[in-house]
Amino acid sequence: MFKKSMFCVALVSLVLATSCSQDDLQTAKFSQNTINPNVELGGQPISTFAAAKGKEVKSRAVETTITNLGSFTMNAFQDGETNYMKDVKYTSTDGSVWNTDAGTFYWPVEGNLHFYAYAPEQPGQAGTFKLDKDAQTLTDFVPNTAAADQKDFVYAKSTGNNKANGTTGIDIDFQHALSEVTIAAKNENTTYTVDVTGVKIGNVIKKGTFTFPSTSDAAASWTLSSDVSDVTDYTTTWTTPVTLGSDVSTLDATNVPFMILPQQLSKATKASDKAYIAVKVKITLQGGYIQKDDWVYVGIDTNWEMGKRYAYTLDFTSGAGQDKDGKQVISGTAINLNVDVTPWDEVAEDLDPSGVVPTRPSVANSLIIDPTSTKAYGINIADKINAFWSSAVGDQTTPIVAGTEWTAEVIWQDIPSRAINFCSKSGVVKSGDTFEGKGTTPLYVKAAANVKGNVVVGIKKKGESDYLWSWHLWLTDEPQLVAGFMDRNLGAESATATDGAKTRGLYYQFGRKDPFVGSTEIYDINGTSKSTGATIATGKVTFAKAVQTPATFYTYGSGNKDWASPNNYTSKNWNDISESDGKTFFDPCPEGWRLPTKAEYSNFSTTTFTWDATNSGRTYNGNWFPAAGCRYGDDGSVSNVGSYGNYWSASPNSEKGGYNLYFSSGNVNPADGSNRAYGFSVRCVQE
């Protein structure tokens, strides 16, 4: 996994001075702090390609890292002054010790120095650098034509002075100025074969002027040419065909990634008229008939940004795109195009095929996952986290912003084997037991095997122990609406009465989003046993503490029989902090479902809600409700399984309690009042 998209150069002193005496230095107002470059990487290497230490970057086949940077060019000046350093080249043989043949440099005693660095020395086939007090630009830059010759142009800007940096050094953070584009393909259709011998990116702008960050730290930017002669195609071809299969192929080894100017693309109905990706294919039908032996095209309208990797995957399973004249090649069906958009620290995010705006990932506290599916399921992590922690019951900060590093992990699951994997939106599985994310990028997961059950995943800031939020992943077939209610308990593996314990589901404390198991074992992500039952601790705790510790069932301790204190929302549905009239902020139900209100249980009675002694529960108009018992609020113990059923509503009935549906073999109370610290079952209704 790629961790960082920048690397760091620490320069300890600056300003040219060769063979100066002490008096000369004082007269010139230079310090005695001599240059001593100390180069270090601001994180893990950003490349999976082999990189020979100490060698300059020769092509895009090698992404720039601290070990293969080899050399960089430095300029430095003070405001309104001529350059102290002009095109000074630093080199290294091991990525740690850096030297220059330009002489010895010293910091000026007073004033800031602005440093500008870049690599490689010639990043393209054309372009002119100007880095001084008047301008900081690379004018009329044009990347090399062949992908194998294109280079990873990196830049850095920093400002420092003798007082702050004379002895400690100054950090120079290199960042990527271009967009990286890779192309892969697959075909699961056995009625025809697809052989690939080339890829092409067409109708993109090849020339632009790069403006470095300003002396006042305004962001770097590109200004692209508007001349039609600067619109070009980038093509790579090879001799030995690559035959596509069900697995994604990165195509021939000569199909190295492209390094292209960042730009907003525009696509047309006829793909070849505007920005496109083309693949040189031979499509052979069963029986040997060659359907197509030429380029096929698909339009793209991605917004390529600096420092991001765009990994396009073309799926030929149900179509093969257009020919040059805009006609569909196979059965009138468009090719399925998917693109993973990743900063070079590998925070995966996808764009929808054909440029359609992606469906927003789920914002619910529970997510239903089909255990038989291979699709990726998304979770919008930032909305819940930031809304909660910026509220009156959080610490009134916004913890997830651009650049925030976070870790996702499985807190517990009730499945004794691997049940989910972390992945990209397109379903590419990420290795390891945790996922390292950054910023507001959604989290994506997928089923690892055809097993039903429950998984709780949590997000925390990298290096911290407390969770910012957690989500219940419910691996089950899609629940149905029966007699106004979901056909099963939240967390249940089955809706069939004869399946016994599999119908009971999970327990919830009033106002909490997080579920708890009964007297069953819980496991880590790989199915290794952690404990039996839930972790029990004496309450009361704040809302924030409960969010940070989602696996802990808090008893009420003493006094008011609520797990929470303070609780200023006892008159709200399910301790709602959002003042919502519908689904509450802490509602544990999946998207499209919510907790019922007290009124929605009002029709339940011994007449409408019939007892089943064989399976220990009641049926309401064909909908099975097991007598799942509860967890007691005073000690957290599980009791009354098979004898009593308690199902929370979202409605409060007092400062310490909430309404619930209660039943036994001889009694039904649709408006029972119970303490908030109890753990009861949940049965959702549709939103």
Describe this structure as you would to a colleague:
The protein has 687 residues and is mainly β. The protein has 3 domains: 7-177, Immunoglobulin-like; 180-355, Immunoglobulin-like (Sandwich), CATH 2.60.40; 366-686, no CATH class. Helices cover 4% and strands 38% of the residues. It contains 4 helices and 48 strands. The strands form 15 sheets. A 7-stranded antiparallel sheet has the order 3-1-11-10-7-4-5. The longest helix is centred in the middle third of the chain and has 9 residues, at 381-389. The protein starts with 6 loop residues before the first strand and ends with a strand. The relative contact order is 0.08. Mean pLDDT is 84; it is low at 1-28, 34-62 and 345-360.
Explain the layout of strands and helices.
Blueprint (H helix, E strand, L loop, with lengths): L6 E5 L10 H6 L2 E5 L3 E3 L30 E7 L5 E9 L14 E3 L4 E7 L6 E6 L4 E7 L11 E7 L1 H4 L4 E7 L2 E8 L5 E14 L2 E4 L9 E4 L6 E13 L14 E3 L15 E10 L4 E10 L8 E8 L20 E8 L5 E3 L14 E4 L7 E3 L1 H9 L15 E9 L6 E4 L10 E5 L4 E5 L5 E9 L7 E7 L5 E2 L2 E2 L21 E2 L11 E3 L5 E4 L2 E4 L4 H6 L3 E4 L37 E2 L14 E4 L4 E4 L2 E4 L3 E2 L6 E2 L5 E8 L4 E7 L4 E8 L3 E2 L4 E2 L1
Summary of the model, kept short:
The protein is mostly beta strands and 687 residues long.
